[in-house]
Amino acid sequence: MVASHVIDAIGAAPVGMPASDTYTSLQRGVIDGLAFTWQPIQAFKLDELLSHHTNIPFYNSTFVITMNKDKYNSLPDDLKKVIDDNSGVELSKRIARVFDKSNEAAMAAARDKGDTMIDIPDPLNDANWKEPLLEGTQRYLEELEGLGLDGEAVYEKAKEASIACKV
Question: Which residues lie in coiled coils (predicted)?
């Protein structure tokens, strides 16, 4: 995962764990921080323990809803239509709006609480973050290459899609 490589590149030790374990791990001092989007901070009540936040728009998680193709094909046309009418790009946009609203509310709550917020709006042009971000990305791409995957090609397409989505 890119985030763990970036964490390593800044001199910290990444620790993978289920999100459900982060509260007790923070509480007990097993971890000193975490790399999360905003919504889980409230959902897992981490806002009770956290008071400092660094916002870096560098990566995003991907959520996928899938269905077994054979099962889909076995459905009558009217049920396929229900699924088709309630999935795809439009569903993705609706879900994204829900996540964005939830993330904005969690961030606002942290600000209202008086938490320290450090915003890095353009991390690839920030002297402190550029190198660790590039190093972390490169290490991840090399891992993919080691698995026989063309990570560089996928990365380039992802960058193009990101630019296209900003329009």
Answer: none
